[in-house]
From TrEMBL, chain A:
SMART domains found in the cross-reference section: DSRM, RIBOc
Name by which UniProt lists this protein: Large ribosomal subunit protein mL44
Domain RNase III: from-to ranges: 135-223
Transmembrane regions: none
Automatic annotation (TrEMBL), chain B:
One GO cellular component term noted in the UniProt record for this chain: mitochondrion
Lineage: Eukaryota, Fungi, Dikarya, Ascomycota, Pezizomycotina
Stretches the record annotates as Disordered: 28-142, 242-272
Biased composition (Low complexity): 28-48
Coiled coil: none
Cellular location(s): Mitochondrion
Keywords in alphabetical order: Mitochondrion, Ribonucleoprotein, Ribosomal protein
Protein name per its UniProtKB record: Large ribosomal subunit protein mL50
Cross-referenced InterPro entries: Ribosomal_m50
TM spans (from-to): none
Length: 482, 423
């Protein structure tokens, strides 16, 4: 909702996001081998896992080497460092719970690899993808190209909470798919609704390409979840664990805010402009190293137990920062969404850019989202007046167009707002005031929801070989500042 | 009562691997006692418990702390290995052995208690100074209870085992070349019986015969006339005798040959001995050898007509005895020549399982990518495994000390015992 704000970066930042997406695409040059993630690993400087993390990966690799011919890179440190089960917990009981978890882990180290509670591989080996009827049916249902092998699709179905190994889960594919999906959705929105306010853009992005939307898409594709991940599970089922924290690679766009802790703790307001700069494509905060924070917290608790806290740490202990809680439902949505994104990523890698674009258009952008329902105004008349002022229209005046039943129990007033001799909008209501406000809101909506048409050209068309020369799109200067 | 001829070795559980169970082909009253002694020693008359010959029989007290073994429990391989080594038994012992063998022919033996009792010596009578009576039961050998005595296979000896007329269904001859050879043998022998006018003996059980008989039968020439009639030429009498010799003493040559065979192959290892014995069992011919034999015959023998019901039945009965394959009556109607019978023998049985049927007849169904064909019933546990829930269920049950599958943790049903009066 547009509140009081000074500056508003809109146009440049959107394209900044788009540009970053392209960078991301270049970064993840099209390999399914594990080498690609090395750069990302280094930039994030993920620390080493607890004892056994590296060995576990090696064991994993050795066992599957014969099939996939994967190279044994020593840089394959798993992102997921925290091996205990993170259940939901409130801020009050965090300390004790965390401490207990930490202690339990150190006393009885988990003999099973990759943090799984059960013996055997954490996810089915690639060759089993050829035996699964469900997987083949899914492949055919999605009308995927023959160039996309069943093994890739099986990999898309393995979430990072099921299998920590980056060589066998869908983390990278999901990252790639996320950038592609968000790129196409954002260019569609910006091109088709050039005057859309930024908040609505964020909401619309979530509506088309957010976790819940992609969850719905995956469910409509007929993807079913496994009860518990493991190597004996049918490769055609989506495998994830709601008790674990996912290790999705954070967005290519966005930065971690310095005051993120306080924002979470005190629920600080984040302005739209700052969101455009710092946050991700959906306007959510980017919290890099969530699991690092958890580990720090654990270490703090342990030190408290040992009695070797510094002063600052003592303060921190008393006033713990509540960690962002990911509920089981959130994890479920995220896992399904990762699968959907991973499929897009796999389509991009195996079939190419054009096919991936068509895939996104047909599955994601074909859905209907009512942008009109998303608006919420406070003082719409003021906003409309400012808009007219900015645009150089005459001062808006509301006039009753028609009315009925003024003295009855159910009056109806139809009010039109005029700028000079031109009617900007009209609205009806049970009272004149109501009708006037409705008319103002309708006027604002009609301004913001202006669209040059469905066949507007999008920047991604320029990738075609025979593309016509590009003419700049009309993108508005931004919302009205009240 | 007519003596039941023992034509085949018993095929019970505990006797499958014991060489001691091969039926002696000779009668106890053999001319040379020395030969018999060696023969018996090497043929491992299994029902002879060594303890009988050693201590118990003559009433000598045993210092052995172990209880006296029963006759049948002395059958375990250790005993027979002992016996199978060439060991000169004393004259007394060999006579006992002969008695036993004779009694085998008289009636089937049931596990009987030992004939004489033995008492363990009292503590004062023991002269061995190193002997210490035990204070606790630890380490002492435990006796089995008598509740399941008769259901324990170890307590039954060879004669109690069922001896079938033909090989069991899992021991049937499967190799097609060997089948052809045995068919030829059966046809020849049936023709021999027919020719010599022994209509009556046709219905009798024919002797199995060993390798020699096989060779003899295959050595006869078969002359096939145009109408499908056949005539056998050669040592017909010899073959006939071997077929009819079931109840009589086997010829000496047979015994000598077999003795020679035993002498030639005297392996120290019991396993190779077992293998040697198994080789000597029907059908007495190797597949490669059979293939060569088949090539040697001309095709006319397949035109021998089996119109004569008596001949047809004789052949099919002999086939059953030799190979274990039963020809269905329904098929007998359509079998008119030996070639037809060979075709039936060579034909594969219909698949009993749907999965096998699909594999053979409709493999394209198994190759469909979105279809999964299971070879056995999909149980609820399979479904849980596919979804990944089974391991969780197992873990939780284990936590609570409950079994995941089976009924062994539940009390056995005792209604049957009540009905039968706790029998």
């Amino acid at each position: 909702m547009p509140g009081s704000r000074r500056t508003q970066l809109r146009t440049p930042s959107v394209f900044l996001k788009l540009r970053n997406t392209q960078l991301a695409l270049g970064l993840l040059s099209l390999k399914l081998s594990p080498g690609a993630h090395e750069e990302v690993t280094d930039s994030r400087a993920a620390p080493q896992g607890p004892a056994g993390g590296k060995d576990d990966d090696d064991i994993n690799i050795t066992k599957r080497c014969e099939i996939g011919n994967y190279e044994d890179n020593n840089n394959t440190t798993s992102y997921f460092l925290h091996k205990t089960n993170l259940k939901q917990y409130s801020a009050a009981g965090t300390a004790q719970a965390l401490y207990e978890d930490y202690q339990n882990e150190s006393e009885s180290p988990n003999p099973n690899r990759n943090g799984s509670q059960f013996p055997g591989l954490p996810s089915p080996p690639p060759h089993r993808a050829l035996e699964s009827a469900k997987l083949a049916a899914l492949h055919a249902r999605l009308n995927l190209s023959e160039r996309l092998p069943l093994q890739s699709l099986a990999r898309c179905l393995v979430d990072s909470t099921a299998d920590e190994s980056l060589q066998f889960n869908n983390t990278h594919l999901a990252f790639l798919g996320r950038t592609i999906v968000n790129y196409h959705v954002s260019e569609y929105l910006v091109a088709k609704y050039p005057r859309l306010p930024m908040e609505i853009v964020f909401a619309a992005m979530k509506g088309y390409a957010g976790n819940r939307a992609l969850y719905a898409i995956a469910r409509q594709w007929g993807v079913e979840p496994a009860a518990a991940p493991g190597e004996e599970v049918d490769p055609g089922l989506l495998q994830f664990d709601v008790k674990k924290t996912g290790t999705e690679l954070d967005a290519a766009v966005g930065y971690k805010r310095k005051e993120l802790d306080k924002i979470i703790k005190f629920k600080f307001r984040r302005g739209i402009s700052s969101r455009v700069v710092f946050d991700d494509e959906f306007g959510d905060t980017v919290s890099m190293g969530e699991h690092e924070r958890i580990l720090e917290r654990q270490a703090l608790e342990w030190r408290a137990q040992q009695g070797i806290l510094s002063e600052d740490e003592m303060i921190q202990m008393e006033d713990p920062v509540p960690l962002e809680i990911e509920t089981a439902e959130d994890r479920k949505f995220a896992s399904y969404a990762n699968f959907s994104r991973a499929v897009v990523g796999a389509v991009f890698l195996h079939s190419g850019r054009e096919v991936a674009k068509n895939f996104v258009r047909s599955h994601v952008l074909s859905r209907r989202l009512d942008l009109e329902e998303m608006f919420s105004f406070s003082r719409p008349t003021r906003e409309l007046a400012k808009l007219c002022q900015r645009e150089g229209f005459e001062r808006p005046v509301a006039r009753i167009l028609s009315e009925t039943g003024r003295l009855s129990r159910t009056p109806v007033f139809v009010v039109g707002i005029y700028s000079g001799r031109d009617r900007l909008s009209e609205g009806w209501g049970p009272s004149i005031e109501h009708a006037r406000l409705t008319a103002a809101m309708n006027g604002l909506k009609s301004w913001y929801l202006y669209s040059p048409g469905d066949d507007v050209r999008m920047p991604s068309e320029t990738y075609d070989e025979n593309a016509k020369p590009w003419t700049p799109l009309y993108v508005d200067m931004g919302e009205v500042i009240v | 009562m007519r003596r039941i001829p023992l034509l085949r070795r018993p095929c019970g559980l505990s006797f499958a691997s014991s060489p001691s169970v091969v039926v002696p082909r000779f009668s106890p009253q053999v001319s040379a006692p020395a030969a018999s002694a060696t023969a018996t020693s090497t043929r491992c008359i299994s029902s002879t418990p060594s303890s009988w010959s050693r201590a118990g029989r003559f009433g000598q007290p045993t210092l052995d702390r172990e209880p006296e073994p029963t006759p049948a429990s002395s059958l375990p391989p250790q005993q027979s290995t002992e016996l199978s080594e060439t060991k000169q038994l004393s004259a007394e012992e060999s006579r006992e052995v002969d008695d036993l063998v004779q009694s085998q022919y008289d009636e089937p033996t049931i596990p009987l208690p030992p004939r004489t009792r033995t008492w363990a010596p009292k503590q004062e009578e023991i002269k061995d100074s190193s002997y210490q009576p035990a204070d606790t039961g630890e380490g002492l050998p435990e006796l089995k209870s008598t509740n399941d005595w008769f259901s324990d296979d170890e307590n039954w000896d060879a004669t109690s085992q069922f001896v079938g007329f033909a090989p069991a269904s899992d021991e049937r001859v499967q190799d097609l070349r060997i089948l052809e050879v045995l068919l030829r043998r059966a046809v020849v022998e049936a023709l021999v019986m027919n020719q010599e006018g022994k209509g009556k003996s046709m219905a009798n059980t024919w002797g199995m015969g060993g390798r020699n008989e096989l060779v003899k039968a295959l050595g006869l020439r078969v002359v096939v006339k145009e109408g499908g009639e056949a005539e056998v030429q050669g040592d017909v009498k010899g073959v006939l005798e071997s077929l009819e010799e079931v109840d009589e003493q086997p010829p000496e040559e047979d015994e000598e040959d077999e003795e020679d065979k035993w002498k030639d192959e005297e392996p120290a290892d019991m396993e190779t001995e077992q293998e040697a014995i198994e080789e000597e069992i029907a059908p007495f011919v190797e597949p490669e050898e059979a293939a060569e034999m088949c090539k040697g015959w001309d095709k006319t023998w397949r035109n021998i007509s089996l119109d004569d019901m008596g001949l047809k039945f004789a052949v099919t009965k002999r086939i059953y005895q030799l190979t274990g394959h039963r020809i269905h009556d329904y098929k007998l109607h359509s079998i008119l020549t030996v070639g037809g019978l060979l075709k039936v023998l060579h034909s594969k049985p219909k698949p009993t399982k749907l999965f096998e049927f699909i594999e053979e007849r409709k493999p394209e169904l198994t190759n469909l990518p979105n279809v999964k064909v299971y070879s056995r019933r999909v149980t609820p546990i399979d479904k849980e495994k596919e979804v990944g829930r089974w391991k969780v269920i197992e873990r939780e049950l284990e936590k609570r000390g409950l079994p995941a599958t089976g009924h062994s943790h539940l009390p056995k049903p005792n209604q049957r015992a009540w009905i039968l009066g706790k029998a």
